């Protein structure tokens, strides 16, 4: 995004990428300091410059940590994320040397939120950012002793990259607001409600393989199940939230199978599914449907299924 940019559709703010130029120097779950988290380190066009970044949505400062230039922010209202989810955003930015955020301060979407910096344990000027798609401000250590939120999502599932120049995007599935058409989505959501037991359905879309279940042929997909990465990571996800790789085909992020080896990699591979399934059960409250996939019961969000 650029300074002053706003994006509101149907009264809901789109959660925008806070950076005008984005060079990811350390990705999610990338190395020691991000292990088991969905944090990104982002620098700007030229290394070493303390570029400004902007409020991805209208948000409030919940907490500041002076020694690390760290600030916890939360959206004032629910926002629309790049994966189509609508929920609160709670996020952390770090390393701002010039930090002047104060608790209770409200920053409007598009206004300056901070500057990239080196405060705390930073190697080179950058902004460390991690995002929870929830209103839960819990900030606690994971099994690697690294602090993170509950319900963290990878940044490409969080921000729209309208007016962001992606210099190094680590192959993410970066989307602009034009790719998440809200009219179609609401039509789809209405259609979801008429799925019933016995409906014949297909999957609609390309999905990211977020994580592979160790020593198995199953993978976790946050978008399809809503299970947070952390829960998958700790293998606390229910059996029915792991998807059988055998039923999916690896594609690139545009859906092409050319050059794909069908060996899924967590956090990297994209997949689609062309099979037809029969809905076994419906849960209205979570808008989910139960399918039998390769002999295995799976619950997925109905919004990614369409009836045939
Ligand atoms: Zn970092």
Outline of this structure?
This protein has three helices and 29 strands. It is mainly beta and 308 residues long.
Sequence-ordered SSE layout with sheet pairings:
Blueprint: E1 8-9, E2 12-14, E3 21-26, E4 40-43, E5 52-54, E6 59-65, E7 70-75, E8 79-80, E9 86-87, E10 90-94, E11 106-107, E12 112-115, E13 127-132, E14 140-141, E15 147-148, E16 152-153, E17 165-168, H1 182-192, E18 200-203, E19 207-208, E20 211-212, E21 218-220, H2 222-225, H3 229-233, E22 243-244, E23 249-251, E24 270-272, E25 277-278, E26 281-283, E27 288-293, E28 296-301, E29 305-307
Parallel strand pairs: 2-8, 3-17
Antiparallel strand pairs: 1-2, 3-4, 4-13, 5-12, 6-7, 6-11, 7-10, 8-9, 10-13, 13-16, 14-15, 18-25, 18-29, 19-24, 20-21, 21-22, 23-24, 26-27, 27-28
Bound molecules: zinc ion (ZN).
Zinc ion binds next to loops.
Explained architecture:
- The chain folds into two domains: 8-178, Glucose Permease (Domain IIA); 183-307, OB fold (Dihydrolipoamide Acetyltransferase, E2P) (Beta Barrel), CATH 2.40.50.670.
- It is 6% helix and 33% strand.
- The protein has three helices and 29 strands.
- The strands form eight sheets. Strands 3, 4, 6, 7, 10, 11, 13, 16 and 17 form a nine-stranded mixed beta sheet that branches.
- A hairpin with a 5-residue loop joins strand 14 (140-141) and strand 15.
- The structure holds zinc ion (ZN).
- Zinc ion is lined by residues 26, 33-34, 39, 41, 128.
- The site of zinc ion has 6 residues, from loops.
